Amino acid sequence: MAQLHVEAEQTAQAAPAIVWALVSDAMAYPGWGPWSEAGYRRPGDASPRGPGAVYWLRSSRRYGLRRPVSVEKILDAEEGRRLAYTVIAGIPVRNYRAEVTLAPAAGGTRIRWAASWDRTLAGRLVQRSLRGLYPQVVADLARAAEKQAALVQG
């Protein structure tokens, strides 16, 4: 089946370790992104936030009468470099796989957040929403990392 895709990229003026600390811990997401609450349902297989970990994120935005909750599972993690996850509940998509990659860049970190999922009617509606959301999420992450870097440099 054909896949739908969204992605966003931006460079943060912060070290990869600072960006990684924000993106690798779902509990930090409400502090920098469009989520009002977050939590872990189960720890990862070898580390609490590593592969196998299941977490949830409640949107701070209303869709209709509710704030959707996405449940995600970490598939793979390379500390400071890459986080791959899948959505297992909460949004109407099939075979959703996303990856956040971090790469050193002049004076900071290049952030790339990309996702693909099956082309279905509901998936197309989700794509319309995520096309606007992904650039905002990456910009929010970069801004939060830069603030954190400024505090560290102090």
Describe the protein.
- A seven-stranded antiparallel β-sheet has the order 1-7-6-5-4-3-2.
- It has 154 residues and is of the alpha+beta class.
- The mean pLDDT is 95.
- The protein has three helices and seven strands.
- The N and C termini lie far apart (51 Å).
Instruction: Please tell me how large the radius of gyration is.
Output: 15 Å
> Cα distance, first to last residue?
51 Å
The share of residues in extended strands comes to 35-45%
Major sheet: size, sense and barrel closure? 7 strands, antiparallel
Count of DSSP-assigned helices: 3
For this entry, give a set of tags.
7 strands, single chain, 154 residues, seven-stranded antiparallel beta sheet, 3 helices, globular, alpha+beta
Secondary structure layout plus pairing:
Layout: E1 3-12, H1 16-23, H2 29-32, E2 35-42, E3 54-59, E4 69-78, E5 82-89, E6 97-105, E7 108-118, H3 121-153
Antiparallel strand pairs: 1-7, 2-3, 3-4, 4-5, 5-6, 6-7
Write a short abstract of this structure.
This protein has about 150 residues and is of the alpha+beta class. The chain contains three helices and seven strands.
